[in-house]
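User: Sequence in, structure out. Go.
Assistant: Echoing your sequence, followed by the structure tokens.
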Amino acid sequence: MPLHPLSVAADLVGVNPAATPLKTIFPSLSQEQRHGAALVGNEDPAWETLAQDDSISIYRKKAWKEIIELTYGHTGTYLAAFDRGTLIDILPFFLVKDPLGRKKLISTPYQGSNGGFMCQDPGVRQDLIEKAMEFARAQQVQYVEIRSINPVPELEEAGFIVQKPFLVSILPLSRVEENWQRLTPKHRRNVRHAARSGVDVQKARNYSDMQVFYDMLADHYKRLGIPFLGEKFFRLVWERLLCKDCGSLLIARHQGEIIGGHLMLFNGKTMVSKFSVTRHHDRYAKLYSAYALYWEAIRIGVERGLTAFDLGITGAGNVGLREFKTRLGAEEKPLHFYYYRLKGELPDYESYYSAYKLPRLLWKHAPAWLTNRVGNLINTWIC
């Protein structure tokens, strides 16, 4: 069973932060801000410089910040660490609120692994943690959550607890021939079968392709009984990222009909599998369009010179999906979700699929117009 929408994103996999220090200068900083950690102003001209730096994660850039703010109204708060005016780390947080007045601080929502730190210096990390906690207490949030692909001992030293509810699958990218050999024989056979069956995979032609893709995704999650994101999020991803070559939407067609799609984001040297879906009907099952979509994505990643393909995160109990990814040649790593409780209860992602059985059943049978509207509201908090 696929995971909740939050669980399909990536980190700076394949990039050694210690070996690739950031060199971006923030000329607008005051003398006091030129050392240590500080909040980054929303209108700072250095955002444009960050946008041009391919070594910085897409989830740390202003485009992603604006997508989340415009879709859900969450306030993006970016903490930056400086050394003599040079940016050495940037930690994205979002202040998430719900209609009941609850608040939490997350780095970062609507993805699973790209919170955390880029810099390896313990002192820098401690400065950022201190500033984050100051902000969290001032905002009177219930808890602080930081999602990281790597362990962060400084967070545990600061009193955070860690949970490891998911695994992330990372596929190394090298050359087309080498990645083809990474596929198991059965996966290679299914890719060839899709081609022989007439499945054609191309980049999306226009936003109408994205709309069809979104409708398939919304239907897929409804059948699973899982509230899904609203279409506005996908429109902004199209406008702010895909139209600027920061990602790609692959569309699978058969005899002119769209039967599947795969949305990827380009994240430094890593390609992120954000969402993937194929049509739900027996007559499409033997076309193996999912295999064609993943193989085309791998080929594109190699051609772009990327070094890793993040295939998203999976619950440990979802054996079928985990096996599908490992048979593409991916390797699994545990994700680290860190929490600091200030008041209220912490989320329990590990029991997400064993709970809410009756609401899920009702959700599956509710009319689509209702689930589409209410689902977006639910995802304002569950993110």
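User: And one key feature?
Assistant: Residues 5-165+336-381 form a domain with the Aminopeptidase fold (CATH 3.40.630.30).
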